[in-house]
């Protein structure tokens, strides 16, 4: 094996041929960093909790002592800065050449490195009215041109759907595995199943499915009240043909902390979401 096959960053390149080092098995490597594991979190349908699960996994990995980065790949609906309560901050852009810049990610209170289009534009409510190829280009650039440094895990909050943008991520970035997020609704599972088949066609391993908003826990007796479907999370996972990673209830305390931008604090003081990372690490 040549040096270039084993090195994941052009900064580590021992051959002097940085172009060669930028490609590992035809995958694009970030220019400013060394990332050990890239994991995509995907759903196929908006609003099921993909970004929430991405944030929870990132925070749990960080709690376990890993160096973690998050790439907000949901370019037209970026929500990661709000999850981490850093939506008022802006990522720095450092000119490298006449045509190139380097992005300095915003660091959350826990020390998670975050890059999102919403951290690069002036105001977070400014819409992105771009066609697919431009969005794909922006996402690829945030991945390659961010100063990630040494990371154990880079989590990508994947763009919704099975279209062009998700396809580009899976084809061009060295994604090690995928985590699928679903809710217990037949309509959602049907669409999520399409995503599962797409990931399988791309030969990317699936760690499992997180069934989000599975139930509400009764405050009095602790019973699980299934709001959307009587089917169990195991049944849904069987339908999708992937392992069940976790079953998460609707959690109003989590929502409240998200609204206040204090989700990291909430996760730090809770053991509830540890299960999300047990099968990853
Ligand atoms: P997606 O990324 O799939 O579009 P989000 O993660 O943005 O979905 O979640 C959509 C909404 O649902 C957000 O307002 C979020 O706070 C809420 N939400 C997600 N998961 C839960 C949960 N387990 N309990 C309560 N609310 C949740």
UniProtKB/TrEMBL annotation:
The UniProt entry, under InterPro entries, shows: Mrp-like_CS, Mrp/NBP35_ATP-bd, NUBPL-like, P-loop_NTPase, YlxH/NBP35
Question: PROSITE patterns from the entry?
Answer: MRP
What does this gene product do?
Binds and transfers iron-sulfur (Fe-S) clusters to target apoproteins. Can hydrolyze ATP.
| Residues the entry annotates as binding ATP | 44-51
Q: What is the lineage of its organism?
A: Bacteria, Bacillati, Bacillota, Clostridia, Eubacteriales
What this protein is called in its record is Iron-sulfur cluster carrier protein
| Claim: ATP-binding is one of the keywords in the record | yes
Chain residue ranges for the region called Disordered: 1-20
GO MF annotations, alphabetized: 4 iron, 4 sulfur cluster binding; ATP binding; ATP hydrolysis activity; ATP-dependent FeS chaperone activity; metal ion binding
Q: Name one Pfam family in it.
A: ParA
Instruction: Locate the compositionally biased regions of type Polar residues.
Output: 1-15
To which species is this protein native?
Clostridium pasteurianum BC1
The record's keywords, sorted A to Z, are: ATP-binding, Hydrolase, Iron, Iron-sulfur, Metal-binding, Nucleotide-binding
Q: Which family does it belong to?
A: Belongs to the Mrp/NBP35 ATP-binding proteins family.
Cited Gene3D superfamilies: P-loop containing nucleotide triphosphate hydrolases (3.40.50.300)
Q: Which GO terms describe its biological process?
A: iron-sulfur cluster assembly
- Oligomer status and interactors: Homodimer.
């Amino acid at each position: 094996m040549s040096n270039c096959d084993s090195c994941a960053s052009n900064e580590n390149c021992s051959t002097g041929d940085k172009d060669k080092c930028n490609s590992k098995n035809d995958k694009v490597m970030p220019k400013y960093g060394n990332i050990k594991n890239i994991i995509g979190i995907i759903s196929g349908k908006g609003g099921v909790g993909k970004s929430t699960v991405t944030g929870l996994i990132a925070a749990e990995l960080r709690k376990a002592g890993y160096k973690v980065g998050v790439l907000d790949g949901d370019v037209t609906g970026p929500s990661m800065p709000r999850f981490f309560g850093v939506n008022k901050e802006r990522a720095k852009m450092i000119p490298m050449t006449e045509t190139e810049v380097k992005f300095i990610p915003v660091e959350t209170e826990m020390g998670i490195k975050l890059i999102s289009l919403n951290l690069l534009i002036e105001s977070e409510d400014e819409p992105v009215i771009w066609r697919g190829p431009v969005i794909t280009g922006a996402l690829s650039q945030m991945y390659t041109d961010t100063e990630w440094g040494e990371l154990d895990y880079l989590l990508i909050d994947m763009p919704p759907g099975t279209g062009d943008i998700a396809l580009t991520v899976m084809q061009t970035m060295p994604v090690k595995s995928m985590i699928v997020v679903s809710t217990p609704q037949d309509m959602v599972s049907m669409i999520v199943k399409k995503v599962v088949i797409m990931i399988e066609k791309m030969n990317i391993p699936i760690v499992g499915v997180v069934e989000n908003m599975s139930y509400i826990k009764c405050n009095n007796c602790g019973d699980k009240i299934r709001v959307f479907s009587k089917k169990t999370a195991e049944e849904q996972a069987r339908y999708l043909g992937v392992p069940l990673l976790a079953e998460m209830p609707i959690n109003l305390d989590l929502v409240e902390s998200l609204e206040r931008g204090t989700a990291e604090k909430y996760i730090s003081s809770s053991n509830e979401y540890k299960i999300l990372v047990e099968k990853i690490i």
